[in-house]
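call fold target=AraC family transcriptional regulator
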Amino acid sequence: MPHLNALAALIARYAPTDGTHDTPVPNLTLYRSSQPTEPTHGMYEPAFCIVAQGRKQIELAGETYIYDGARSLIVSVDLPVVGRVIEATENEPYLGAKLSLDPKALNALLIEHRLDRREPPAGVAVSLADTTGEMLDAFTRLVGLLAAPHDIGALAPLAEREILYRLLTGALAARVRQIATADSKISQVNRAIDWIKRNFNQPFRMEQVCAAANMSPSALHAHFKTVTSMSPLQYQKHLRLQEARRLIVSNARDAATAGHAVGYESPSQFSREYRRLFGAPPIRDAARLRETPAAELSVG
């Protein structure tokens, strides 16, 4: 596919080393890996991810989603997932791009072009769809603006607008509409997620989460589970453990202090739940990560 080769060449140029590369183009991030990576725990924000070369997978609650040059990924809420590059070599590295999705920009397009605003049944906030030639062309033009920084302010919004429009009118339209619509179930779950993220190290208060989402406890639990594949309490636990891991790996805290900092009162409970999620006790896991830090960079 000519567009795929062109996009791969651009990403290789502007992501010359392994890891995550922020760009001057708003909402655009590039990724490169010259080898398959170990499973990486990280947060995926609402975003559209496209692969120009190689293959990536993420796991959420036992389900595996694989995306490559033929399939793109969309995530509609902040999700703690396990990701890994599964196909990459020195000569043909994994090359990907992520566009963070702006709900206000999506909603403006819905209104301006009178697109379908009906809310579909709630579903898991991760979806795959075929990557079209039109989408590859638009992404190639967006990444290509990195060659002309003086044009980014004027032209990047136009290329991004085309990508958002194609998302709203393509195979993933139903999921994308949920991000754009303020009163959709996805948006209500997003408000609950935002509360949990801001208070993850505090005692869990279901009534406050429900108030933030404007949903009853039964409705919130059901829709939260459908969208994220976990309960609100399990979501909080993932956030706590990921933050504790960051603190330990960066040498900012020892294991006991890190556990207390994220809200655990019992060191033994913290160590037990940490090992269950990451596969090793805190100190051993941190030592492994410090030896292979590049594995923790590819989260998009």
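return ok
The first strand starts at residue 19 and ends at 22. Confidence is low (pLDDT under 50) at residues 294-299.
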